[in-house]
Predict the structure.
Amino acid sequence: MPVDCERVFELFLDPHTMAACIPGCEELVQVDERHYSGRLVNEIAHVRFNASFSAEIVGLDPPREVRAVLKGEDRRLGSSLKLDAVLGVLPNGNGSEVSYSMEMALWGKLGRMGESIFRRRTAEVEKQFVEKFTQICTGVPIDEVRAGGKAKAVPATGAAPAAAEAGGVAQPVAVVETPLAEQPVPVKKPALVGAVLAFVAWLFGRRRARSGK
């Protein structure tokens, strides 16, 4: 991140910043110095969940490390989760190096989806979070970040580590300098399946035409 450790730590503990950066976070309230509550709406493998959650900071060593436990539940899906997370911040030139690790436990319908699905979705959410958090670090107003504003150019201060997978070792991710609108958009599975079916139909039509001749 292109700011010092103290600023990164301050932003991580700010509910307004986190609500703007966490994909699908529709509500986040700071109950006291150690407790937060909120609501998260997201979609995993075409299953939409709407979970209320609580978060407790169980360890705090500013501006180097924060440990937190998050618990959430979607009663409609009969699903719940528990997340133990550790976030670390270290100096990196004129900026900061951020890493995290987490252990996740899932129950109910979400838990039956499989670990690989959650790992892929975690990587997507992580990328979106890094983009938005970098914007706020470079001075983009929170309201603009919520609306999907563009990231400002960032001086090269080194890479910002971020875990590629849940529970994995943090891997370096370049500081975002490209406008969000220009970021590559992954092809979703339904579109890919449609393209394959269209090709099969075209091929089958050609064979029938040859048989008619």
User: Anything to note?
Assistant: The CA atoms of residues 61 and 67 lie 9 Å apart. The first strand starts at residue 25 and ends at 30.
